[in-house]
Amino acid sequence: MSSGRFRASAHTLAAERRQRVAKGVLAVATALLVLPLLGILGLLVVNGWPALTWEFLFTDPAAGMTAGGIYPAIVGTLWLIGVSLMISAPIGVMAAIYLSEYAGDNWLTRGIHLAIVNLAGVPSIVHALFGVGAFVLFLDLGTSVLSASLTLAVMTLPVIIASTREALASVPLAFRHACWALGASRWQTIRHIVLPNSISGILTGVILQVSRAAGETAPIMFTGAAFYLPFLPASVRDQCMALSMHLFTLSTQVPNVPPAFPYATALVLLAIVVAFNLFSIILRSYLRAHRKW
Amino acid sequence: MRRASLFSRLGERLIEAVIVLCGLSAIFFVAAIFLFVFLSGADFMLHRLDWGEFLTSAEWYPTSVSNKRYGTLALIAGSASVTGLAMLVAVPFGLGTAVFISEFTEGRVREVLKVVVELLAAIPSVVWGFIGLVIMNPLIIDLLGAPIGLNVLNGGIILGLMSVPIVVSIGEDALKAVPDSYREASLALGATRWQSVYKVLFPAARSGLLAAVLLGVGRAIGETMAVLMATGHAVQIPTSPLDSVRTLTATIAAELGETARGSDHYQALFAIGVQLFAITFVVNLTADLLVRGVRRR
Fold first, then answer.
1. What ipTM was predicted for this assembly?
2. For residue A148, how many other CB atoms are within 10 A of its CB?
3. How many domains does chain B have?
4. What residue ranges do the domains of chain A occupy?
5. Which residues of A fall within a CB distance of 8 Å from B16?
6. Tens-of-pLDDT digits for all 297 residues of chain B?
7. Do residues A233 and A71 lie in contact, with contact meaning Cβ atoms separated by under 8 Å?
8. Chain B residues close to A278, C-beta within 8 Å
9. How many interface pairs between A and B have CB atoms less than 8 angstroms apart?
10. Distances (CA, A) of A273 to A29, A276, B126, B237, B275
11. Which domain holds residue B79?
12. From the list A29, A126, A262, which residue is nearest B92 (CB)?
């Protein structure tokens, strides 16, 4: 920096100054994204915590939802998560196996890829219309846990397919070659080599699907989630309450709700979603760090 | 022995048939979505709906007793205005963050930032809507003196924040797809990292970055619960960001529960569904073509 011929020219100094400014601006932009995340979490915790008692978690809503708790909504959300998972996980994983292990580079594969991209892009309310038309009315399942779960399953299918494909692709091709060379068939190779080596990666995608399904509101509004039900679903043909729907109801449809109630409901919903997400993220980074090959 | 292998061969064929079927499921479902949404409103759409009025009139009076009108222009304007404002938030913040994460951070900081973006994407839309309702609403009234805080500004900011994660992740992918040799060549010529970013990386990753923005647009147009709760339910063409509006998605969500099955109003909502399906289809298709162009190179 001092005298001598290696001193930076004014031009270089100006360029570096500009870089510092640019970097600062970008860092601020990034920080401004972290802020709302922390702010939202903080606000929900501060305002929701007082109402978040065991009683709130484990009793039914009472007195026109102005008292009591959210127990049926929690149970309903668990039903929706479970049933939609049972539908979308096998279909999604097998679709990914097809794309990763069988499909050639041809027009059909491109068509499937395009369909997945569009399935992921269809607005949630259009999924709801589909659910009403196809499951509630055409298949005559009525507004039920099953209809809502089927709608959620179709909607979250791309999540499972994409992450499972990634997990399958991370198994080195050499593993498959070695297995084929021993005379194993394609399916034997998948069953005994590819799947065991990618199962935890597949799991992260499945967990991510759970987190998506738990938070959705629009697709279940008209297909199975009820505003208020004083009983728990006994089978998949019953309606159910759901946390996401309940938050919408509490904050827009019902008068005289204690102000802490919707905050506490949002907090529980967010806790479930974020917990599944963090679990998936941690599992993924653990797998990356401990990959055997 | 032979019998056993015959059985296992058969079992294998069966499993592979199921796998192929599941592989085709995405195509089946997209086709089914279009068909069911279209057919549920087909009778009205094909025989009684005036498509010219549907697309160009701002008069949405589906429940009027004497003169029912089904113009969606105000709803389209509602969606467009909220989405436009959302992009004013999401594009600079999203692309800025993508550049920062991809070019100016490494190691642990990068990992943490990526997790933050992922968690931002995980917040359910109904929680965003709730934030719009209880936090942004009074804030806008207090700070800007607006009579009502549920408006284009509120919905736009919320939707912008919701679209940021997708812009960041696709934008980052696009920057990552630029070969390191480009960066090295630029730095070797004496350019700073920032100069490399806007002189070399931006032009090289242009189509990928555009795809990131388009996918953000797609996300914003299709979002339902957040705009239903944060934009204020007024069917009108907005003239300022402080006007309340209603979007295409929110209209379906707000009215579907109150219509009689099979009525014209009910079918008109499915017509809006077809409209939304078409819009997002085109947006996503374009984005996918752009991304594929990046990969091929």
1. 0.92
2. 34
3. 1
4. 10-51, 54-289
5. 102, 186-187
6. 455 577 778 888 999 999 999 999 999 999 999 999 999 999 999 998 889 889 998 889 988 888 888 999 999 999 999 999 999 999 999 999 999 999 999 888 998 898 888 888 899 999 999 999 999 999 999 999 888 889 999 999 999 999 999 999 999 989 998 999 999 999 999 899 999 998 999 999 998 999 999 999 999 999 999 999 999 888 999 998 999 999 999 999 999 988 988 899 999 999 999 999 999 999 999 998 888 776 655
7. no
8. 119
9. 257
10. 26, 5, 12, 36, 31
11. 69-296
12. A29
Q: Is residue B274 part of a domain?
A: yes
Task: Judge: B277–A122 Cβ closer than 8 Å, yes or no.
Answer: yes
Distance from CA of A281 to the nearest CA of B (A): 7
What are the residues facing A209 on neighbouring strands? none
CATH number at residue B81: 1.10.3720.10
Chain A closest-CA separation from residue B108 CA (Å):
12
CA–CA separation, B287 and B216 (whole Å): 10
What letters, b where the CB count within 10 A reaches 16 and e where it falls short, cover A238-268? bbbbbbbbbbbbbbeebeebeebbbbbbbbb
CB contact under 8 Å between B215 and A211, yes or no, is no
pTM, two decimals, is: 0.91
Q: Report d(CA A201, CA A162) in Å as an integer.
A: 11
What are residue A61's DSSP bridge partners?
Answer: A68
What is A54-289's CATH superfamily?
A: MetI-like (1.10.3720.10)
| B94 within 8 A of B216, measured Cβ to Cβ | yes
Taking an 8 Å cut-off on Cβ atoms, the answer to whether A274 and B277 are in contact is no
